[in-house]
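Same chain as my last thread, 409 residues:
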Amino acid sequence: MLAIEKENPSLKGVLPTNYARESLDKTRLGELIDLIGTIGLGDKESRAKDILGRVYEYFLGQFAAAEGKKGGQFYTARCVVKLLVEMIEPYRGRVFDPCCGSGGMFVQSEKFVEAHDGRRSDLSIFGQESNQTTWRLCKMNLAIRGVEANIAWNSEGSFQNDAHKDLKADFILANPPFNDSDWGGERLREDARWKYGAPPAGNANFAWVQHFIHHLAPNGIAGFVLANGSMSSNQSGEGEIRKGLIEADLVDCMIALPGQLFYTTPIPVCLWFLTRTKNNGKLHDRRRQTLFIDARKMGKLVDRIHRDLTDEEISRIARAYHAWRGEKDAGQYEDVPGFCKSTTTDEIAAHGYILTPGRYVGAEELEEEDEPFEDRIARLSRTLREQFHESETLARTITRNLTRLGYGD
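reply #2:
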């Protein structure tokens, strides 16, 4: 570990150096070193980095699952990160996450660039984290993949001690703490970042939103996770802040996600996408319009309590957004009842500036039956009679068994 830190100054003081302590099982440690030795770091370097990175990501996920609610401090579900990255497409420029956890947003951004034959050197990465242990996880996560980044740590956090005060980012990706009540808002009532209204001291949701906007470059785009309450809450001035964001034409897209995607909470959450450039030379001028996507019915269970979005679902959502934006080769956009709807600011105002996609996308169209009505009724009648027969047979069997046990009439 000391040798690695010596060769990589950015990791100085980051790596654990307590593997020689007496209480550690030397046999287990030896087995672990032997196991890592089989990865083959010397033959195909890029492949080895990817394997180590995937191993690291796997253990972060397992650790987050074991930690439960605390796991959300450092880990965001991979499918959510991938969806955010596919939506905002960070090809080149400055990527920023002011609550970066273990760095999953940055890792996925680098993967996106590589998958689209870009150059990783075209991205400049900036982050901040207030938990020192999590900051170390992030530094190691990026180092394993050879990703250079400016990741700051201080115990005060991004609100009280912004480590990148002058940064204007082209891409902002974040999963801030949900409904954080302990963010020190009472000490920041007159802060210059609150352009659309002072956020309530008891909930940091709209403090994070305005912090992102404060750091957004003129042509930048921000994509981030928030609790569902942010789309409709009118408490403590949050409704007025949301109205200000909508009327300023910053809200580009809203996505409602299914529940059970996170280790921290089983409740569904939403994704916000903000930008100042809705026309930006694209095929469509989307000024004073917002795209709503309802993905609550998507995802598949990967275990009893956790759900993942599939790659096909992520692709479908991202394609709809890019088509709506009028981006080259994205296809023609169309509203799909129950899935997506392009909505004007006036329509949103008529709904009291509520941003819940379900209000706008409508109901899903049911497929028409190809089977003639008479044939369908005959088929259903046969099925019903068969089920009645099975029910009677089961009732006789149960009665007979109860009689044998002495419980019959």
